[in-house]
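Q: My labmate handed me this sequence with no annotations at all. I'd like to see what the chain might look like in three dimensions before we decide whether it's worth expressing. Could you predict it?
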Amino acid sequence: MAQFTGDLLILFETSEMTPPSRFADSSWKLKDRFHDSQILECKPSQEWKGFPIQEKETDEWRIHTLGEIRDLPVDGFPKNISSLHGQFLILAYEKKERQWHIWTDRFGTLHLYYCRGALGTFSPAVGSFSSRKLNWNALAGFFGFGFFPGDHTHYEGVSIAQPASHYIFDEHGNLTKQEKYWHWQHVPDLNRSYDDTLAEFASIFNEVVTESIGERTAIPLSGGLDSRSSVVPLASDSKNKAWSYSYGYSDDSVETRIASQIAAARQLPFESFTIGPYLFKNLDRILAWTEGFVDLTQPRQAAVRDPIADHADGLIAALWGDVWLDDIGLINRSVTNEQVTSHTLDLMKKNGRFWLLRNLVQPRWAGGDPESVLDDYVRNGMRPLEHIPDPDFRVKAFKTENWSFRWSLAPIRIFQSAASPRLIFYDQRITDFFQTVPSDFLAGRQFQIDYLKRFAPDLARIAWQVYDANLYQYQWFNTLLLPKRILKKLGRMLHSKQVFERNWEVQFLSEQGRSGLERWLLKPSLHLHEFLSPVQIKTLLEDFYRSPSASQGYSVSMLLTFSAWLEKYG
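A: Here is what I predict for the chain of 570 residues:
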């Protein structure tokens, strides 16, 4: 049986400080000493399953591997790291040199934070050893994009280890080396036919998914294409190990109805859930899991976290399938580098950023217009990828190293609190494959549609939620299917039924939601009021409730996230 650790913290100097732990039922204890440095550990708890851990020792190394690598070979270590499959974080002590080495996987799926004198898996613990000075340059990016840019965090001097990277810290905790051990490339195999490319994907994907099925595995299903693709490779004996589920915003949710049909087609046990206003009674838990790095309304899986913990030890997550199996909007377009950057900025900037940048960041930031932080970050971040000639794949690589790394992966820790997530589209074999696929094969998700039609026609006949039609009919969305869509819309209008389609609507647009926002944004003596007056906040809330919109919903959600982080960790 796999061993687990809750969190690890490496300190390079003796300290009397007690760093914060993720949950009160698990505190830091001394795990090991290495000359001047020491490892502290929080054990797993009911609220936080933590990380699978392997520990190995040689004459030269003491190796701690977090994540799910079947067996890390010590022969040849560390030269073999770039070839490892899986999601991992390696912390290794080099005995002779008295220095610590850190390796992240290609996608940085398991996050590690560091500052002068400390490094670990829980950012508030690491941050407690910093100057604790807010990084407003980084916060401009956080409010503008919804995630922190680059390696930045809330505090100056606290950084996150980048994907596909190797770090060395000396015996005093000084960072002495940082390097990339893997780099993006895109070399399409033009001699391989479309059909052969499809067959090769099916073979690799089958291997990755099959390896990810454990004895008790949860499979989230939805009305989209990625989750149904994830059940195509399931063998008959795997079905006895799986439990599938879905959630929607009403008891008659289209999403859960389609998901139940997918489960039935593959004879999977299935359970559906209706998401209600769960946020404020679980806010402390969600903050501990996400560490304040993502809008608290984004990870709606928090509503079903406890049932996942009851049913599963592992979970198949189809995250990022829609990126690999679709285009970014630049296929067969002749564009300059500047146009690629502009397109990327349009994809990433949040419409609700303006109020936050103007009222929170601008008054305490000496860099001119905070909007320039967003432009500079993308422009500078795209330069190392200019060697990729295909602009569509270039943006995919940038999104994966940035958006995925900082925004998409933070909510995955809610799954991790309950069951070990297996990120099937983050497997290195999948990446290597898509680096050889011509982008025009993937336009409009046709490649994934053909995969399902060829290898799972029963699933292809089930409706695709976004089109309300199956994969044999969806192309008639705006022609033959138009009368059906009009009748459905008229039916909704006649019944005057309010349909919530976004989580912030469910969490905020109720009496419970409004009182929760007032508690976290307007209660006297909140730390947030050091930066914003209650009058400013009250005006924002009044405008939001007068005419709720996605833009205002984002502003309010991010302000709530920042306030909650300030109260608990800031």
